[in-house]
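hiii, so i know i said id send this last week but things got crazy w the move. better late than never?? heres the sequnce for the chain we talked about at the cafe, plus the structure i predicted for it. fair warning i was half asleep when i ran it
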Amino acid sequence: MTLIRRLMKNSLIYAIGGALQKLAGFLLIPLYTHVLAVESYGVMEVLTTLTSSAFVLATLGLPSAFNKCYHRDCHDAEDQRTLVGTTMVLLTAVALATVVVGLLAPGLLARGLLGSAESRSLVTLSLVSAAAFAVAQLPLMLLRARESSVSYVSLSFFQFLAMLGLNLWLVGRLHLGVKGVLLGSIGASSVTFLASLPFLARHASLRFSPRLTRALLMFGLPMVPVAVSGWVMDMSDRWLLQLLDSPREVGLYGLGYRYGMLVEQVLVMPFQMAWSAFYFREAARPDAREIYARVFTWFVVVGGWVTLSIALGGEIALRLMADRSYWSGASVIPVVALAYFLNGLVYCVAPGVHLGKKTHFLPVLTGAGALSNVALNFWWIPQYGRMGAAAATLFSFGIMFALTAVLSRRAYGFRFEAGRIGKALLLLGTFAMFGLILPSESISELFIFRGPVLLVSAVWVGAWCLKDLGVKWVWSREPGQAWLRWVRPD
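okay and structure toks below
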């Protein structure tokens, strides 16, 4: 179980860094929901889809490729310095191209996204925000490759403070609305990159390497269709809600989605960052398949409890943080949380695809999920509004997981601890059912009925983890004292 502990430790480190980058957005929810009308919040969510898609294109898959090239295609420290400089040139070039698009075609994009050309400036700022965020990823990519976890978290914390401070000033004090949100994002990315320049200067060379460029693009470009499919899964529903329903529905959905997507941010992304390096490193072990099966079971239990906590606690947090006019958006939180739990299971079975040498099927798998997502959105949004969009996300991630699991099992013989997984899912499902069907008309009722469910489920998960790690509970009595300790078996 030492391997499991190491994987959990690395996941926790990346969770802290990732959470800091996202925490500003949550701390600003009370400000956004009191300053922005629901319709304006909906406009911001639609613009977020543009920023996210532009970021995917502006990075060329380099965040995925950099770590691989840093360790496998660089022959020495000087090569690694050259890789940093080469990556900076590529990111800067594509970022500038993204900004040019924003300057040349803002009216066209505004009409397509928002139904009106009046928001040209917001569209331009959205693309500039994507470009700035793309360039600001370079120091974080380098810190991950160098396994400088403390520095990674420190830089993430600096970015968090910059985002929080700028938004409080621009939105809260200057009342710039959606424009202030976008300017705050641009400013936070810019100051983060500028603050990291001394670090980059020590580890970068100004030389440009065609050999390393080829290595980066050969690995990164095939990931772009995968990333685009991921964008379709994560973000296209906002635009479709705007097209098929109303900006108000987008605003309610967007806020509820933000809480449900916490599963992705605090669980799935940190796990994925640690998991890819872990399973490649342990692939040569004769018991690799057993290890992967055990990790899958752990993800179901621990990740299932995290999902349950967000599904039940998300509505409490939303009501405490947001204006009353946004409260009805909480209805999508459990569905979205479960959807991203399924996305985490996709990453769990990914070793079978990679080690079984079936990576050429990845665009097919993600494409199937993306196409089903768009089709289901067109079908369900006119009938069910935001709940239809949430259900489409859930079903499309389910399709992706099913296809990936089948391919992984056939290509590599990926194993599952079916009995243990089934019992865990049955118990977690029972907790979820009790938490969601009990009355919840007021915040006090939410605390009264969901609190005990979360507490009991936490005790169960904790006991399961300790038992699986081989930790025994020993109650020791001595004269004058009674104390509890953990004893690890020999």
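btw The two ends are 13 Å apart (CA to CA). thought thatd interest u
miss u guys!!
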